[in-house]
Amino acid sequence: MGAKPRCKGWWVWVLVLVILALVAGGVIFAVVKKIKKNSGDDDGAVPGPPGAITQKYSAALKVAVQFFDVQKSGKLVDNKISWRGDSGLKDGSDAKLDLSKGMYDAGDHMKFGFPMAYTATVLSWAILEYGDHMDAVNQLKTSQASLKWITDFLVNAHPKDNVLYIQVGDPKKDHECWYRPEDVTEKRPATQVNTSAPGTEVAAETAAAMASASLVFKKSDAKYSDTLLSHAKKLFTFADKNRGSYSESIPEVQKFYNSTGYGDELLWAAAWLYHATGDKEYLDYVTGENGEEFAQFGKPTWFSWDNKLAGTQVC
């Protein structure tokens, strides 16, 4: 994923794989369901009311969801992780913003907006598809709280229509050391994309995160949902009208989360905006010329933070 740190931290990657495996499982299930539905070979195995709870899977989900608490930055609220404390409280201060929330990337202390936004989008999708199942094992509220911890960061990272802060911290310095985020004292610069230094993929992915999360909070917090959707629309416009890769605008990200293209993020964002708004303009965006140029309909490959084409075709 990112550049390898010089210090030991293999256990963190094990936890990363656990959470990604669970989320990916949900996505794969949805893909299979969609394929069966489209082929007419639907055996009735579709998500419904939770059935009997299998304890070992309930426990696995709890551990996976707890990983988000481990990764949190900022002034922690109702902290259940005894060895974690407040950190990153001054993040964003150089830009006169509060970027203290959000989550650290893997086992380091960087905040990379591109994979963080993707995490929010996929977590939203999992909640929308399987929220009742999560609720049955007391993990829904925890998952929603973790999602909001990320989206609060993303809202603050978008102070102007055409400005999005996509990174906090110095990746070179960060990966030269290994210690607790609570002990960080060095300066942590905030990096932005804008009209002069565009970042279509990260702006569009953030739009997808905001749009999908707006659906999660639509009933429980309508005002917050509206705020997220407003940011999503503006970010999508910014991404689409100022096309350019953030890997070219900010070359240092190539060593960590290099983007191989932004077409998939544009379609992914438009698809979520269509679900969130019902506006046919977004559907036409996906199925029209942009879809013909970027979608590769019928030929999806993998689904990851860098390639959302498979997810877009399901969504």
Automatic annotation (TrEMBL):
Q: Name one GO biological process term.
A: cellulose catabolic process
InterPro entries under this entry?
6-hairpin_glycosidase_sf, 6hp_glycosidase-like_sf, Glyco_hydro_9
Task: Write out the transmembrane intervals.
Answer: 12-32
Q: Name one GO molecular function term.
A: cellulase activity
Q: Which UniProt keywords apply?
A: Carbohydrate metabolism, Cellulose degradation, Glycosidase, Hydrolase, Membrane, Polysaccharide degradation, Transmembrane, Transmembrane helix
Top enzyme category: hydrolase
Where in the numbering of this chain does the Glycoside hydrolase family domain appear? 57-314
A Pfam match: Glyco_hydro_9
**Would you identify the family this protein belongs to, as annotated?**
Belongs to the glycosyl hydrolase 9 (cellulase E) family.
Q: In its UniProt entry, what is this protein called?
A: cellulase
Q: Which source organism does the UniProt entry give?
A: Malus baccata (Siberian crab apple)
